[in-house]
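Table S7 (text form). Paired inputs.
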Amino acid sequence: MTTFEAGPSEPVFIQFGPRPSEKGQLVRPGARADYPADVLDRLSADAATVVARYPNSRSALLSLLHLVQAEDGYISPAGIDFCSALLGLTGAEVTAVATFYSMYRRAATGDYHVGVCTNTLCAIMGGDAILAALEEHLGVEHGGTTPDGKVTLEHIECNAACDFAPVVMVNWEFFDNQTPESARTLVDSLRSGEQVTPTRGAPLCTFRETARILAGFPDERPGALAAGGSGGEPTTVGLRVARELGMAAPPSSASANSSATHPDAETLAKDSAREMPAPAPSATVPPKSSKGGE
């Protein structure tokens, strides 16, 4: 906090950095500052497995952040210190990465991270309505966790499933073509402990178990390694129509000397010239006359 005198008796207070009440702080009351010896030993063994996959240990940072997130349910100060000490990075360097990527949580996360896509297509197909309905139904705001610790609700960015819009993801597994009613039923099932099956993908596991899988450890869920489904109808409709009309790509030229595939030297020279940087000012260009306008 810095104070400047604005007048005889009027101090002006300027607060630097985020406010303590601001959401998304890495250091918060009750946050784990260090790991007990047994946890540290276990994490160190797992981290050694992760780091060994990379020729440069610093390249393991993203995976290690998932590893410590699997331990705490979010990126805690203890996790930051663990990664920085292991990789020879500063806390600021690790924090910069952890706060850049949205998949790294900065607050305690429930067993099920429920993400509602509110990007353009999902939003206009009902994503905004789904998010609003869940906020009211669960009694939490975006980014909040239910009192039972089961569900954390958040809006998320596009997950490349626009042909199934609006999409809800639970621990990064897809629930397609959702409505406010189906989304309410989904979160009620999650909170009651019922078995919930994604539209596509493997059976659900907890958020911390998902983080460990993302750290690069084996995914042992039944069907986790099965081939994924194809794109939805909006994605494949062009291919279907082309087949129905007997359309096909034009054949390639049979002529080895075709100018389309073998341009002549003059064309090549022109194309090369386009890629060259603009020339520096030439010494042969006369300087601008110092006489007014000449």
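Next pair, protein 2 of 2.
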Amino acid sequence: MARMFLLRTFGILFALVLVLQALDLLSETGRILERPGNGQPEVLRYVSLRAPEIIARFLPFSVLLGTILTLITMNQNSEVIALKAAGMSAHQVLAPLIIASLGVAAVSFTFNERIVARASSTLEQWKRVDYGPLPIDRGDRTNVWVRDGDDLIEVARLTGRGDAARLSGITIYDREGGALRATITAQNGVRAGDGWRIGPAERFDVASGGVTPLGEIVVARGVRPDQFTLSTVNAEGLTFTALREAIQDLSDAGRPTKALEGALWHKLSGPLSSVLMPLLGAVAAFGIARSGKLFVRAVIGMALGFAYFVADNFALAMGNLGAYPPFLAAWAPFLLFFLLGEAVLIRTEE
């Protein structure tokens, strides 16, 4: 059963990737070849970067269809009836598929961490330059905001990395209890011990309206250089560990992280969705084939599986909007459809 299930799953996955990659190329090939100097090598490079994303996204669909196809075949050949006549329960009949899907989930997680993350990161950077030569990232950032306690620090431009980072166009908003007390502005800033030396600095007092020259001063003690160099985080382009570290850095910098936390949890719940598919597609395994309702059972199994993907995407979208907590956005559809699949299986077969 497991061998038949895996062969059908990866066969369907291969066909899906082949068709979807061809359709994707129809829309992207023109943009790639618009760039002077691009040709067939660049198209093949795009395929090598895009195919892992398609595989990762449609592997759970393939597991669902592979499950239904396997169980329909067994039902038509009366193999399921023979297994149940031998005293096996519905859960015991499905056990080989569930164990095999656990292996698929492990492979999916490893594939996402080792290949998909790197491919997604490179492809996103390549798209930003309209499929031209990738520039060298020298660490320059513009319009950077960092939170230091109640205070906010705005930097117009940052160059360099680590202790060699240099700040330009600095504005510090000195706040107390949410109310703005003063602003400190300076042209330049460099790393000084655990803080930043800025100057020539001026302080504008909100209450009095007066401006006071401060010369060179040290501010933002405890603010690390990497808090300034953080840019927009692409959750798909980072591994689980790297994304967790980026979320921690963004949190330390006082930036919102709810959407990224949901993406972090989904890096676990996404691959595990393969384990749900045998349970949701199990309705196709049972019932008498000659009763004429086998096709209806297969449609019900597909409907349950696709309903899960719709609910999963909806929950992630609500999590990105802040309507759902990150953990709930990633795991609620998984737990809901696990209970739903168990309820259908127990009510109809156990």
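Residues 141-229 form one domain.
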